[in-house]
Amino acid sequence: GAGVSQTPSNKVTEKGKYVELRCDPISGHTALYWYRQSLGQGPEFLIYFQGTGAADDSGLPNDRFFAVRPEGSVSTLKIQRTERGDSAVYLCASSLTSGGGGEQFFGPGTRLTVL
Amino acid sequence: AQSVTQLDSQVPVFEEAPVELRCNYSSSVSVYLFWYVQYPNQGLQLLLKYLSGSTLVKGINGFEAEFNKSQTSFHLRKPSVHISDTAEYFCAVSRGGTSYGKLTFGQGTILTVHP
What we know:
The complex is a heterodimer of chains A (115) and B (115).
Chain A: E1 5-7, E2 10-13, E3 19-24, E4 31-37, E5 44-50, E6 53-56, E7 65-68, E8 75-79, E9 88-95, E10 105-106, E11 110-114
Chain B: E1 3-6, E2 10-14, E3 19-21, E4 23-26, E5 31-38, E6 44-50, E7 56-58, E8 64-68, E9 73-78, E10 87-95, E11 104-105, E12 109-114
Parallel strand pairs in B: 2-12
Antiparallel strand pairs in B: 1-4, 3-9, 5-6, 5-10, 7-8, 8-9, 10-11, 10-12
């Protein structure tokens, strides 16, 4: 079956612009996670959705970052007034169960470059 | 909070040689432990995980890892590597017994297998 997909695969934008990054999880997966991976680093947690609600957004760096999952499937990560420091690969993962030991399936990521 | 340290940023080895990628974690509570692999231009893929029980865990592609609670380590091993094992490997932890699997990753280890 289809895995987690993310669009676009690459996004180049100018400082100050608004961007949206989309994640399509595996069908039936109720848990969805966003991570950010800066160059040379491991992924860092941003936000977790269980169904439609954001159950943990403690990793969002500031209020320029926001994410939604209105129907409990597709999720969109929104970044306002982008800064050069936002440049990174944004990863989405989904999991069949919300349990802590469940396998997370990762998408290929969106590489965001802020000029 | 949990943290993960991968002790080697790069590990070069020759084909058919054994390899060990080191991972240490810090946590005041019980944890679940994971190893993920990231091949070039692909998403993260789960290699293996430790949730409970036997401390020796076997995963895909001939990899195994041993959980050592006293040394807070979860080193990844393979007795004989192939060229196709060239990739970046990430150790990760999540809080044990929780209702969701927010992952904390290490910085990654780039394994390069030479012919």
